[in-house]
């Protein structure tokens, strides 16, 4: 198997103009121009000069002052500006939401403006705009150097010269109609997108990134030739399998699901049915995690040994079937989630991560799955049964089977009571012989409803769990929390 593409998806960097894009600086600039005109003893057409902000101040003053007076006038304007123009200038509607939309994708924000840099920073600080970099005194195509240096793929502005800067940088030009330029002027300048205001930026960004990342995923897969997908039946690996079948053709894709004590029986048939519906071959090789001491010991790195066993099984299987690569459904959120030893094990064995490489987040995986009408688009997370066993307690086939029986019993009880449960975990917290304790986690909303209105159903639930072999059982009042066992690594006494 060849070495995977090690380049991660590029991080998102979005550039914004300042005047009339993020802030309505007209009142402040107008006040300073009036004071400047009075000091110089000239008449400046302030309303006209502030109607369409964009060019640098020296160009704005050029028609109205002798050449030798422009430099000193600019210096005086900048000196007057902090006291006269900062406090009165508001952010434009949608500005904070636009910056938050970038942050939601772990992106960086760069302000690139023609304004004097110290004054631009005063506005950013006064309005508490969530910005990483402020670069001033650049305009038009001159903005391209900054955008390229910072790695910006999108530049948002309100002026035709902002469009010039974006295009020169090879960035997507997004224009807003808040600065006086018309839609027709901006389109004629070559902008890619025109928005009425920044309130429209967040939904545009969501759609843009989904389209961009989907295209990147499909392009990546097309180059792979053939693929074996480590397929669990969950939303991530299901989308990867569907995307691979689309990009390569189902005859060049194989779904491989490792069968072991850790894979719930309830997951197996639906996973096979989905894969077969795509027209891909399905392999179900046995995996032997239990033979790995590190897996049975169930320390914090248990997932490393589990994923190592899976990939050590799938890599030779791919070669046997003439498939060029093995890929997992790791998404972009997984990569930055912190404690994920399984990802390291897969990477060490050369597994591809096409979803993560394309930058697709969990939310985008679900949205793309919904658009493709995949039945897994809203499927709850279904971690392996071993994830239910508290760290430090040995993983055994008996424990896993008991957890699976307990979860089945709880689902059956709640269904009989007319209670729909989405996320459910029975956590094996261990204990001495005859004292083994289980904690049941269900959707938090149920704790404010059917399971919070009285003790009868809760008592029945705990009794059902005890009948599967646990000595004691309780219902967690905190509800289902993905990865809640990781909390016990730092706080072993905290069970509830």
Automatic annotation (TrEMBL):
Molecular-function annotations in GO: sulfurtransferase activity
SUPFAM superfamilies (UniProt xref): Adenine nucleotide alpha hydrolases-like, HAD-like
One of the Pfam families matching this protein, by short name: HAD
InterPro entries from the UniProt entry: HAD-like_sf, HAD_sf, LarE, Ni-pincer_cofactor_biosynth, PGP-like_dom2, Rossmann-like_a/b/a_fold
CDD domains for this protein: LarE-like
Residue runs in coiled coils: none
Superkingdom to which the source organism belongs: Bacteria
Identification of the protein by name: Hydrolase
């Amino acid at each position: 198997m060849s070495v995977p593409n090690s380049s991660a998806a590029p991080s998102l960097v979005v550039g914004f103009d300042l005047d009339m894009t993020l802030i309505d600086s007209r009142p402040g600039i107008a006040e300073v121009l009036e004071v400047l005109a009075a000091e110089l003893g000239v008449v400046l057409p302030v309303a006209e000069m502030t109607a369409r902000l964009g060019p640098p101040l020296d160009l704005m003053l050029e028609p109205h002052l002798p050449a030798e007076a422009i430099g000193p006038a600019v210096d005086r304007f900048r000196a007057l500006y902090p006291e006269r123009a900062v406090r009165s200038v508001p952010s434009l509607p949608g500005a904070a939401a636009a910056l938050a939309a970038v942050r939601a994708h772990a992106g960086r924000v760069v302000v690139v403006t023609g304004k004097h840099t110290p004054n631009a920073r005063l506005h950013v600080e006064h309005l508490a705009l969530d910005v990483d970099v402020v670069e001033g005194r650049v305009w038009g195509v001159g903005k391209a150097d900054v955008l390229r240096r910072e790695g910006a793929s999108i530049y948002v502005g309100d002026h035709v010269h902002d469009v010039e800067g974006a295009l020169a940088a090879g960035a997507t030009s997004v224009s807003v109609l808040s600065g006086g330029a018309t839609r027709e002027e901006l389109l004629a300048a070559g902008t890619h997108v025109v928005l009425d205001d920044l309130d429209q930026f967040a939904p545009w960004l969501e759609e843009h990134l989904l389209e961009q990342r989907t295209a990147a995923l499909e392009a990546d897969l097309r180059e792979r030739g053939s693929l074996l997908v480590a397929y669990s039946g969950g939303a991530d690996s299901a989308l990867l399998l569907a995307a691979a079948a689309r990009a390569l053709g189902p005859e060049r894709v194989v779904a491989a699901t490792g069968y072991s004590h850790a894979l719930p029986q309830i997951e197996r048939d639906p996973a096979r049915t989905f894969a077969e519906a795509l027209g891909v071959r399905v392999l179900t090789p046995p995996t032997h995690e239990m033979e790995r001491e590190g897996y049975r010991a169930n320390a914090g790195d248990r997932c490393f040994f589990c994923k190592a066993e899976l990939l050590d099984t799938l890599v030779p299987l791919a070669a046997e079937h003439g498939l060029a690569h093995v890929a997992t459904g790791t998404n972009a959120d997984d990569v930055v989630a912190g404690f994920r030893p399984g990802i390291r094990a897969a990477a060490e064995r050369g597994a591809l991560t096409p979803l993560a490489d394309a930058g697709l987040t969990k939310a985008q995986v679900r949205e793309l799955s919904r658009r493709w009408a995949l039945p897994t688009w809203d499927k709850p997370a279904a971690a392996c049964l071993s994830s239910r066993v508290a760290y430090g307690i040995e993983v055994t086939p008996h424990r896993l089977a008991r957890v699976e029986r307990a979860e089945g019993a709880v689902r059956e009880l709640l269904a009989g009571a007319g209670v729909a449960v989405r996320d459910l975990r029975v956590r094996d917290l261990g204990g001495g012989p005859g004292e083994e304790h289980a904690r049941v986690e269900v959707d938090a909303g149920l704790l404010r409803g059917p399971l919070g209105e009285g003790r009868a159903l809760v008592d029945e639930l705990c009794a059902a769990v005890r009948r599967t072999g646990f000595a004691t059982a309780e219902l967690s009042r905190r509800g289902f929390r993905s990865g809640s066992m990781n909390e016990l690594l730092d706080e072993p006494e905290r069970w509830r």
